[in-house]
Task: inverse folding
């Protein structure tokens, strides 16, 4: 069995709304290669995953960001999902946590919407990467060159577009996290321009929304309760 990551510690930074396969599959592969992986999040307890837009099972949080020390880890995994990186990018603690890995030249691997966090942390100027096509413009506006490729390695940064690229992403993660820091922050040959914008959204996502089932009674009651609390708080203003 491949144990090239034996003794390595990897931080998986995630929040509620993470794309389940983008956290669980790389995490299991890293563990199988000998790494210890800690799930780091905004809060204690269990965070909820999603499959596209559908709620999925939860994952246990090992430490909050405030409790975790980047110096204790050899690399950082940033999964995607629509909600997860949007929450993390608004957290000053999360942004600084990510910056600490980059300052030390430690490996950072991300896919799908995960690079949103890198953009908000101010780490993409002059970098080359990929992501879910829908966040291409955000990354380009943050100073990055965006490529429409299944896997892009640029120094200490490795990225993929989404769940469809998990096989090359996992392979690339194993290679990346096996290297010792500090890694160069620029290995990709200069590219003059980014790949063009998409002409239409991915059909699989549009189709998934079309065929989603109606909310369950439990979900409807929960949303109603949230709305009632919000309206009550608003009426007191």
Result:
């Amino acid at each position: 069995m491949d144990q090239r990551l034996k003794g390595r510690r990897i931080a998986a930074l995630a929040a509620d709304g993470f794309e389940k396969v983008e956290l669980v599959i790389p995490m299991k592969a890293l563990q199988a290669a000998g790494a210890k992986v800690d799930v780091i999040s905004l809060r204690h307890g269990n965070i909820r995953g999603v499959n596209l837009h559908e709620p999925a099972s939860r994952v246990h949080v090992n430490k909050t960001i405030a409790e975790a020390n980047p110096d204790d880890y050899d690399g950082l995994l940033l999964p995607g999902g629509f909600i997860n990186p949007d929450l993390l990018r608004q957290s000053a603690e999360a942004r600084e946590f990510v910056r600490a890995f980059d300052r030390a030249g430690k490996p950072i691997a991300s896919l799908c919407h995960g690079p949103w966090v890198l953009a908000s942390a101010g780490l993409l100027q002059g970098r080359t990467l990929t992501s879910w096509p829908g966040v291409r413009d955000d990354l380009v506006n943050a100073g990055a060159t965006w490529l429409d490729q299944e896997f892009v390695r640029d120094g200490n940064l490795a990225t993929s577009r989404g769940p469809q690229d998990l096989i090359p992403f996992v392979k690339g993660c194993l290679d990346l996290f096996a290297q010792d820091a500090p890694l160069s922050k620029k290995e990709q040959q200069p590219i003059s321009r980014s790949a063009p914008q998409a002409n239409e959204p991915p059909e699989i996502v549009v189709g998934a929304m079309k065929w989603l089932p109606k909310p369950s009674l439990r979900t409807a009651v929960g949303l109603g309760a949230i709305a009632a609390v919000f309206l009550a708080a608003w009426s007191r203003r």
Helices lie at 20-32, 84-88, 92-103, 115-120, 136-141, 166-177, 203-210, 217-235.
